[in-house]
Write a structure and sequence with these properties.
seven-stranded mixed β-sheet; four-stranded antiparallel β-sheet; globular
Amino acid sequence: QVRLVESGGGLVQAGGSLRLSCAASGLTFRWYSMGWFRQAPGKEREFVASINWSGSSTFYADSVKGRFTISRDNAKATVYLQMNSLKPEDTAVYCCALDYTSTTDSPPAKEPLEYEYWGQGTQVTVSS
């Protein structure tokens, strides 16, 4: 059974930092692209960042580019999202996702429909 478990969320002041982690189990993690998405109350789910199987290719939403960094440790079956210079508009539930149909040749996806497995999410709240 595939499981994705996020951690690291919390309450932080504007300008602060948080590091989210997503631990995967139940499959060979290193074969698959991973993504981070977020959803704020009353809004649609939004792409944040994605990374391919090796970490050599990454994509970011314009709203987080230069502030957030996605990375992965395949030995630990974990993907990370380092979030710096946080803003109140970053407040949301952050979920990691795994693209089960990705290949070693494919760039990491940005659309939620490309991802088959999802974690339960972790709340990030940025106060002004």
